[in-house]
Amino acid sequence: MTPRLGEPGTRRDWALVAGGWLVLVLALSVWLATDRQPPEWDHANHLERAVLCAQDLGTGGWRAIIERSSFYPPVVPCAAGLIYRALPSDVAAGQIVILLFLGLGMAATYLLARELDGSTAGVAAAWIFGSA
User: Residues 132, 40, 62, CA angle at the centre, nearest 5°?
Assistant: First the structure.
């Protein structure tokens, strides 16, 4: 039987998933602190979209946000844009959004795998997803 929220094994499972996420955050932080190369063209393109979305959000340019989003939906770049408006560093805003979405993906993967095959499979699936 799969443990439900509030049941005895659930807290331990969520602690294991969160612990795996924290290990990944620490590893990425160390790597980003030592790797000082500018981002490659595709990553730079995404950072540029986040900065432009932050400017559009500041001016209320909703039409520009939609028009610029022909290939990628504006959710992630504009989430980075919102963080960029509060913390004006494109690199920090980009990494914060990536790590938050990684955490959401790990949580969703845990929930799905737990439903399909139990809590141990859920934790393992979340760790595999995070490290992929």
Answer: 90
Q: Rounded distance, CA 89 to CA 84, Å? A: 6
- Nearest 5°: CA angle at 130, between 124 and 132? 100
**Prediction pTM value:** 0.73
Q: Which residues contact 106 (CB under 8 A, 6 or more apart)?
A: 17, 20, 21, 126, 127, 129, 130
Question: Is-contact 107 118, C-beta < 8 A?
Answer: no
φ/ψ of 127, rounded to 5, equals: -65, -40
Provide the residue-wise pLDDT of the chain in tens; the chain has 132 residues.
Answer: 455 655 667 899 999 999 999 999 999 889 888 887 766 767 777 778 888 888 898 899 888 888 877 677 788 888 888 888 888 777 777 788 889 999 999 999 999 999 999 999 999 999 999 998
- Measured CA to CA in angstroms, residue 100 lies from 2, 40, 53, 88, 124 at distances of 26, 22, 18, 18, 19
